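WARN no homologs supplied; continuing
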Amino acid sequence: MRYSKIVGLGHHVPETVITNDYLSSIIDTNNEWIVERTGIQERRWVDPTKDTVANMAAKASRMALERAGLTEKDVEFIVFATITPDYFFPGSGVLLQRELGLESIGALDLRNACSGFIYALSVADQFIKTGMYKTILVVGAEIQSTAIDLSTRGRNTAVIFADGAGAAILQPSDKPGILSTHLHSDGRFAEELYVRDPGSSRPREERQPEQINDTTHYKVVMNGNQVFKHAVVRFMEVIKEALATNNMTKEDISLLVPHQANLRISQYIQEKMALTNDQVYNNIMRYGNTTAASIPIAMSEAWAEGKMKENDVICLAAFGSGFTWASALIRW
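OK structure emitted
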């Protein structure tokens, strides 16, 4: 039987470090308030004069390729997860293809927000298993700092979201690598965490230039209580689903790498599942919520720190806008 396996991981974050104290100087908040509610101590924001979603993704991709002992020319297909593409269209997948100097290969873009990387990993897994491609680049990358509402009105989201990119290289294996993936959604709650505009389903007069600076354009709307309430349930459900599918228990998990949404959510899941500190990896304290980029950034760091070793069972789990949620169980 043909399996797929992650053979390389990479990440890139912008140079500019944004501390809680800096945010406190421009909006009505403080370090204690942010840490208590989110666990975040600092995050990275891009320099808009030089950083793009595509070029950050390229830097993460080159790191992953180098770690895998491969070059750009080995990539046969790109699956790119982002909700903040460089252009309204085309998607950032083709821009990454251009950044890497590749010609003609396919590039698929996914917009599944915080669950985007696992969705992308699942798509790539199917392509490898069917034999359609032998080397697939899977990327999650976001630039959110340029659109967040830096006012007291927007502080609940302004302190959370940040920028970065992560990448994984998938290749075939004769031994199980990606054991299973599990994808879910519930659109009834789409407006509990969303950005309404720019959207296409508006009268023409609402899409004129004088309306661009209205209160909905690029503004993140989040019902924090609803998101937390659903997240803690769906996270545990989808982790248990992955374990049950593979006849495993929580004791079999070598490392859980959750989407870095909120440290309080991760800690709640850890407590309810009775997982040890060594079984859970968090880096939201340093990077904030980088949406589709958060899991591959965390995986890349965990691997570099020696926390993902051969034959380890790695569990990925995510929940976010849509609502969507997903998990993957991996034999490293």
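The chain has a mean pLDDT of 94.
OK
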